[in-house]
Design a protein that fits this description.
Thio_Ohase/aa_AcTrfase, mainly beta, 3% helix, six-stranded mixed beta sheet
């Protein structure tokens, strides 16, 4: 079975670097990896890149070069930084920091049409760390939010 993994954990802070790996492929198998998320306004953001599995049937985006797609070359976080909307001028925005962006990571067979899904996982990318207190501040014309670490 093909497994897509995110290390060190499927749940992390939004700006934490992660290692994306795929295991269980055939040696030198051509695959396409795709990332997608829907933002709070309902806009779909996606990225993709084509790869060849290593001799042991494994992909590690920190070592395996992308052969094209949304980016090329060795880009460990390429699937995340290259997310784009198909609609022009749309920006990925976050208003509610109490909920994560859930990024679906999928691996498909081949470099052509994406009809045969081999494996997937979801990476939760949070904006508020464990134990951080969020306090609204209102003083005169000042409106702010204070984030206090544990």
């Amino acid at each position: 079975a093909v497994r897509v993994t995110v290390l060190p954990s499927l749940r992390c802070l939004f700006d934490d670097p992660v290692q994306i790996r795929v295991e269980g492929l055939q040696p030198r198998q051509p695959v396409t990896l795709r990332a997608s998320l829907v933002d709070e306004s309902g806009e779909l953001f996606q990225s993709h890149s084509r790869y060849l599995a290593g001799g042991s049937g494994e992909l590690d985006l920190s070592r395996s070069p992308a052969l094209g797609g949304s980016y090329s070359g060795v880009e460990p976080m390429g699937l995340l930084w290259s997310l784009q909307s198909k609609a022009p001028y749309k920006r990925l925005a976050k208003k509610n920091v109490l909920t994560p962006f859930c990024v679906d990571l999928e691996v498909y067979e081949g470099h052509g049409d994406l009809s045969r899904l081999l494996g997937k996982c979801t990476n939760e990318r949070w904006f508020l760390g464990e134990g951080v207190k969020r306090i609204s501040v209102r003083e005169g014309r000042l409106k702010a939010t204070l984030f206090l670490p544990p």
